[in-house]
Amino acid sequence: METLRTIKKRIHQIKELVVQTAVLDHRDPDSIQLLAVSKGQTAEAIREAHAGGISQFGENYWQEAQGKMALLKDLDLHWHFIGAIQSNKAALLAQHFSWVQSLSTKKIAELLSRHRPEHLPPLNLCLQVNLDEESSKSGVKPQDLIPLAAYVTELPHLKLRGLMAIPQMRAGDDEALQYDSFLRLTKLLEDCNQSLGLTLDTLSMGMSDDFVPAIRAGSTMLRIGRAIFGERRVYT
Ligand SMILES: *Cc1c(COP(=O)(O)O)cnc(C)c1O
Question: What is the pLDDT of residues 137-146, one digit of tens each?
Fold first, then answer.
């Protein structure tokens, strides 16, 4: 319960740091959205974060998200899927989420488009880039990004918004190295826009331990879990 009470305070502190960092970097703080990553957290904790001013939430597992969506139907929340996508879950994701940020194959793109219900707006998408080409991580390799983006923009029920990445370097790393890593994603988005004549506007990068360098490198969407909710407890 202690955590529940502190969630609002933590959101307030993170927002202050976002504003400070943006201002120092001559960026408009309103161009940076805060997505609360709620995997491993309870519906009550999400309710508290919503009361603290957050309406976008990220989940990694369909089974877990489903239960919380049902409990929180009374709130106007926008759900982002940020986990690994199994093809047998693609239809459910297309039906229940506003965004999928972890797309990295043509096959899943096609399934998401085919199963997006007609009465809903197009599904917002980010392509997940495996920046450091780690075998343990999903995501499209940088050199395969442009053909995948070209394919996705042709599908009818999808709206490609930008790129997402989880760089290899984590907590304790030098901020300058983290910054360089994020800057590579920013450059990839520019390449993509230039090569394909697009105006993609979303750079989903920056987590609890590295969101400051992510903002400095151009992030427009921070995905923050533990710094808002504390350690993950349930489900996982
Ligand atoms: C879990 C997760 C996050 C949040 O991580 P924290 O370190 O808790 O902020 C962000 N993005 C993705 C893709 C995740 O899986």
Answer: 889 999 999 9
Pocket test for ligand 1, best of 103, 204, 219, 223 (most atoms within 8 A of CB): 223
The answer to whether the CB of 37 is under 6 A from ligand 1 is: yes
Q: Is 126 in the pocket of ligand 1 (CB under 6 A)?
A: no
Indicate whether this model's pTM tops 0.90. Answer: yes
Mean pLDDT of the 172-181 span: 85
Measured distance CA(8)–CA(228) in Å, rounded? 8
pLDDT tens digits, one per residue of 72-122: 999 999 999 999 999 999 999 999 999 999 999 999 999 999 999 999 999
Q: 38 with 229: CB under 8 angstroms?
A: yes
Ligand 1 center to 207 CA (angstroms): 6
Whole-Å CA distances, 169 to 50, 87, 172, 175, 176 = 30, 29, 9, 10, 11
